[in-house]
Amino acid sequence: CRLLCGGALLAKHLPRRRAMEAFLSPKDSAKFIAENSQDVLVEEQGVRKVAEALFDKVSAKEFSLAGWKSLHELNPQAVSDDAVNWVFLADTLNFSFWSEHEDRKCLVKYRGKMYSGYWSLCAAINRALDAGIPITSAAYYATMTLEQVRHVFRSDTDVPMPLIEERHRILNETGTILLEKFGGSFVTCVKMSEKSALKLLRIVVENFPSYRDEATFKGTMVSFYKRAQILVADTWSALEGKGDGCFGDISSLTIFADYRIPQVLVHLGAMRYSDELMRKLHEGVMFQSGDKQEVEIRGCSIWCCGLICDHLLELYKKKGQNMSERINAVLLDYYLWDYARDHREDMKDIPIHRVRCIYY
Ligand SMILES: Nc1nc2c(c(CN[C@H]3C=C[C@H](O)[C@@H]3O)cn2[C@@H]2O[C@H](COP(=O)(O)O)[C@@H](O)[C@H]2O)c(=O)[nH]1
C-alpha cells in the first residue's frame, strides 16, 4: 500500500504526460473497481438479458453512427472544421445539468422549442451562434467575461445553468491552451492523433486539465475520462467516421460514465445497488467526486457495458456474423443514453447519484 500511495504522491509531482500513465486506463480501472466493489454489483444474468433485448436493435438508426445527426437536430449536421470546434466547445462544458427539483430546472428556448439538461447547453450554443456571437471560437471564449458567459448560457426560467462560474473558468483556461498550443482549433489535435481515438484521448487529457477525470480507489489510481472519451466519440460522429475522423481503434473507448447510464443499467436489471446505497440515493445525498460509492457506480457502469458489448458480439458470432464494425461501447452508450432520455418516467424509481463536478 505504501508503494501505491507513494505512487499516488509521485504522480502529483510528475509532469502530467507521465502522470497519466500512472493511472489505470478507463477499461482497466472499470475491471479493478468491479472486482472490488461492495455497494454496486454487475448482474451477469441481467447483462445477458439486456444484450438479447438489444440484438434486433443493432441495425436500427438509434444504434448507428448516423443517428448522432439524424436523431438530434441541435448537433452540427455538416462535416467541417466548424462542426469539430462546436463539438469541442460542447464537450468542454458537458457536465452537471441535473437540477435539485425536477419541476424547477434550467430550460433554454431555441427556435420555438424548450430544451433541458445537456440539450439546454447545445441550444444555448446555437442561440449564441444565431445571434452572431462566435462562441465556438477559442479566440472568443479564451477571454470571455463571467457576465458574457452568464448571458450566452442564460436560462429561460429563473433557474440558471449549474456551475456557471466553473464553466467560465474552464472556457478561459481551455480557450487559452487551444490558442497557445494548437493554433486555436481542435482540428489540429484531431490531425495530430493520426486517426487514433486513443492518441486523441491522450492529447486531450495531457493538455486540457479540466478533462482529467481521475480518482483513487483502494489506493490505486483509476481513470474514467468521461468528457475526453465523449469528445473523441462526438468528433468521430461529427466527421461521420471519415477522413481525419476515421478512427481505426474507436472500439477501444469505453462508455462515458455520467449520471444517466448507471440509472438506466439499474432500471434494465444489468446492475444493482446495495440497500444502503439505494437508501442514500433516494434521500438525495450529495456525493463528492471520488467518493468510494461514486467511483463504484461509475466503474461498474463501464464494466457492465463492456460485458453487454461482448455478449452482443458473441450472440452475432453464433449466427456467423462479425459485427465488430457495428457494435462498440460508443454506439451502445449513445443508444442507452437516448433510451434513458426517452424513458425518464419509467425510471423515476431509480434516482441518479448527485455530484456537482466538472467531469460529467
Ligand atoms: N454517457 C453519456 N452521457 C452523456 C451523453 C450526452 C449527450 N451526448 C451526445 C452524444 C450523443 C448524443 O447525440 C448527444 O449529442 C450528455 N451526457 C451526460 O449526461 C448528463 C446529462 O443528462 P441530462 O441531465 O438527462 O441531459 C451529463 O452528465 C452529460 O455529461 C451521452 O451521449 N452519453
TrEMBL record:
A single GO BP: tRNA modification
Stored InterPro entries: Q_salvage (IPR019438)
Q: Which reaction does it catalyse?
A: queuosine 5'-phosphate + H2O = queuine + D-ribose 5-phosphate
- GO molecular function list: hydrolase activity
Alphabetized, the UniProt keywords read: Hydrolase, Signal
User: What EC number(s) is this enzyme filed under?
Assistant: 3.2.2.-
Pfam families attached to this UniProt entry: Q_salvage
Top-level taxon: Eukaryota
Job of this protein: Catalyzes the hydrolysis of queuosine 5'-phosphate, releasing the nucleobase queuine (q). Is required for salvage of queuine from exogenous queuosine (Q) that is imported and then converted to queuosine 5'-phosphate intracellularly.
Query: To which protein family does this belong?
Result: Belongs to the QNG1 protein family.
Q: What is this protein called?
A: Queuosine 5'-phosphate N-glycosylase/hydrolase
